[in-house]
């Protein structure tokens, strides 16, 4: 006969670290006890509890898997955990109080680049997320069932505009629309059939569609086999402080670039 608490014992047995997501001060206090010999990592929008090991969560991922993956990836980047560590994650799945402990093995695949994409971009994290979600959705569904490609340049829009030229009239010229508005997502998907790039400001305003990017491509090092869209998308992030999110029409993958380098490559179907 097992006691119910045995189930929990198994979940937390021999873990290398405990991740506590967005704890209140009073909740966190119980982990500060020196007798707990497991390192505690706090993952939260702000380090209000003054945790020694802290990972910033720039947005509340509603999906718990995403939230956990993000925290672990951040901790891998800081060297707090490494491949094959086993961690316990204390989260609130249904909002409010912490209601679950989830056991996770850290794998190298968790280092997807998502953490870097959100935490170290100049644009607002929620803007990055909204654009990323449009790209993922477009990648999953295509445009009227056909695969489409798209190139989104996010952040540092003034400079990006200076390093590009219009291919056609700008449908967003006089509008004040932002990514994340449902109607805008429909527009972005519709316009993705057209050539060129979308330019989006730090705060999410859609500045232009149809831009032909003309960055200097020297010093840009991206995987061989990627074409002009990806080269331009990578190079503009070296020339400016932007981040780009690129959906490939030919292989269906979503990639992100920053500082002239690819920081993320994912299959929308896995996301
Ligand atoms: N400098 C650029 N600025 C903006 N858009 C570009 C630029 N170069 C190419 N594109 C866009 O990318 C499209 C596809 O070009 P290309 O096939 O060379 O890129 P790719 O990297 O192979 O992308 P995909 O994997 O989607 O085919 C072009 O039709 C054009 O709309
Ligand atoms: Mn191509």
From TrEMBL:
Domain spans labelled DAC: 111-268
Q: Which reaction does it catalyse?
A: 2 ATP = 3',3'-c-di-AMP + 2 diphosphate
Per its UniProt record, the required cofactor names are: Mn(2+)
Which Pfam families does the record cross-reference, listed alphabetically?
A: DAC, DACZ_N
Task performed by this protein: Diadenylate cyclase that catalyzes the condensation of 2 ATP molecules into cyclic di-AMP (c-di-AMP). c-di-AMP is a second messenger for intracellular signal transduction involved in the control of important regulatory processes such as osmoregulation.
Q: Which HAMAP family match?
A: DacZ (MF_00840)
What is this protein called in UniProt? Answer: Diadenylate cyclase
Q: Which organism is it from?
A: Halogeometricum rufum
Q: What is the lineage of its organism?
A: Archaea, Methanobacteriati, Methanobacteriota, Stenosarchaea group, Halobacteria
């Amino acid at each position: 006969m097992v006691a119910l608490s045995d189930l929990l014992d198994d979940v937390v047995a021999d873990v290398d670290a405990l991740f506590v997501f967005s704890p209140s001060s009073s909740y966190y206090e119980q982990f500060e006890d020196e007798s707990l010999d497991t390192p505690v990592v706090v993952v939260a929008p702000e380090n209000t509890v003054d945790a020694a090991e802290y990972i910033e969560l720039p947005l509340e991922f509603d999906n718990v898997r995403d939230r956990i993956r993000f925290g672990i990836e951040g901790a891998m980047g800081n060297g707090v955990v490494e491949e094959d560590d086993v961690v316990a994650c204390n989260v609130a799945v249904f909002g409010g109080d912490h209601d679950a402990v989830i056991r996770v093995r850290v794998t190298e695949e968790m280092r997807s680049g998502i953490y870097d994409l959100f935490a170290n971009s100049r644009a607002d994290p929620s803007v990055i997320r909204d654009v990323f979600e449009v790209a993922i959705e477009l990648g999953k569904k295509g445009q009227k069932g056909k695969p489409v490609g798209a190139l989104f340049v996010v952040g540092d829009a003034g400079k990006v505009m200076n390093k590009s030229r219009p291919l056609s009239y700008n449908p967003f010229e006089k509008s004040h629309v932002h990514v994340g508005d449902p109607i805008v997502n429909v527009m972005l998907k519709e316009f993705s059939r057209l050539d060129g790039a979308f330019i989006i400001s730090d705060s999410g305003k859609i500045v232009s569609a149809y831009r032909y990017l003309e960055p200097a491509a020297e010093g840009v090092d991206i995987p061989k086999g990627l074409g002009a869209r990806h080269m331009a998308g990578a190079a503009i992030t070296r020339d400016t402080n932007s981040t780009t999110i690129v959906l490939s029409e030919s292989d269906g993958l979503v990639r992100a670039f920053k500082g002239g380098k690819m920081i993320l490559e994912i299959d929308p179907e896995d996301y």
